[in-house]
Amino acid sequence: MKKHDAVKMLLGDRQTNLPSGKAVEIFSPANIALCKYWGKRNQELNLPVTGSLSVSLNNKGTTTTLKISENQADEIYLNGQLLDAQSAFAVRLTHFLNLFRTQEATHFYLDICTNIPIAAGLASSASGFASLIHALNALFQWQLSSQQLSILARLGSGSASRSIMTGFVEWYRGMRDDGNDSFADRLPAIWPELCVGLLIVNDKEKLVSSREAMQTTLSSSPLYSLWPNKVAQDLLLLKNAIHTKEFDLLGKVAESNAMTMHATMLAAWPPISYAMPETVLAMQKIWKLRRQGLALYFTQDAGPNLKLLFLEENIATIREYFPEIDIVRPFD
Ligand code: PMV
Predict the structure, then answer these.
(1) φ and ψ of 324, to 5 deg
(2) What is the number of the ligand 1 atom nearest to the C-alpha of 171?
(3) How far is the CA of 175 from the centre of ligand 1 (A)?
């Protein structure tokens, strides 16, 4: 099934809705996976090999302003700058927008403002596609449910399916070939003391996209066959840790899940490593602090930066050891 058909199936009659003449503006949060999505069972529809679980980053994310453009091409601004239509980012967005054009909406004006570094493994594409889908929903008045929005956001970027919601979010693998059962849902839990610290060691764009890295891992890593079982166990443990508010269990499972994902990538051919020397130094610092008794854990995505996990009571200590850290309170 092609993306176009998946959109058609989901929107049905709504596809002929007239767009609003006014601009709409919507914010969506970035999200950090505590149990990662790594590997697609269907590359066209971004259907995952396993489920995953994340926490949304409250006010860190992307605001998208969207309206119909009278021009003969899309106009896409990123943090105030008009993008070259040939740039990789603009091409990706234009392709995605192709799925939603109508006779009355042939081209779009898009102003994307993000307060997180782009493509540095900080989930900027997740919040970007989630806010764009929310904005399209408002512009065309589709009145979709959050599950339906999650399905459409997934077509832009897998992890965007989770940025539709706030708080703890689980994205289900689903069994269907059309992906209609592969959407995200919010877990009914809050954890006000939980903190996520963004430790940026390098904010340059990554060299290998997560799409390419996932495919290389899936097709060549001898460790990949172990990954689905690891995820199944970690999902259960994480949900348990969230339910009982056992922070050490949450931290341990999240860190171990990320390390296993990166080990699986290292064993691929060609090998993939997103770590930079500063990443490894920061990990060793965290392990040392933990041996000294500090309840501090981390996770890492498709980039060199780390996301530290700790509780409110340790904010002052964390700031002392990592003065450059940006602290987010997901449930504040
Ligand atoms: O949604 P994508 O294609 O950018 O992939 C995201 C992959 C990870 O961030 C590494 C893991 C995850 O679950 O977010």
Answers:
(1) -85, 0
(2) 13
(3) 20
Kindly state the DSSP code that residue 70 receives in the 8-state scheme: -
Determine the atom of ligand 1 nearest the C-alpha atom of 121: 9
Distance CA(39)–CA(24), nearest Å, equals 34
- d(CA 212, CA 274) in angstroms, rounded, equals 13
Q: Where are the beta strands (DSSP E) in the chain?
A: 24-35, 40-42, 47-48, 52-68, 75-78, 81-82, 108-114, 168-171, 184-186, 194-199, 297-300, 306-311, 326-328
pLDDT, tens only, 123-132: 678 999 999 9
Cα(22) to centroid of ligand 1, in Å? 33
- pLDDT, mean over the chain: 95
Q: What pLDDT score was predicted for residue 123? A: 62
230 alpha-carbon distance from chain centroid:
20
Q: Would you state the pLDDT for residue 99? A: 97
Residues with a CB atom less than 6 Å from ligand 1? 33, 36-37, 52, 125-126, 157-159, 210-211, 301-302
Give yes or no for a cis peptide into 277 (omega within 30° of 0). no
Structure tokens at 97: 């927008």
Ligand 1 center from residue 156 Cα (angstroms):
12
- CB distance 156 to 178 below 8 Å: no
pLDDT digits (tens, 9 = 90+) for 308-321: 999 999 999 999 99
Asked whether residue 18 carries a pLDDT value surpassing 60, the answer given is yes
Share of residues in the chain with pLDDT > 70 (%): 97
Which atom of ligand 1 is nearest to 261's Cα? 10
CA distance 314 to 332: 16
Residue 121 above 60 pLDDT? no
Give which of 118, 144, 122 is closest to 26, Cα–Cα.
144
Span 280-291, mean pLDDT? 98
Is the pLDDT score of 165 beyond 80? Answer: yes
Q: How far apart are CA 247 and CA 10, in angstroms?
A: 39
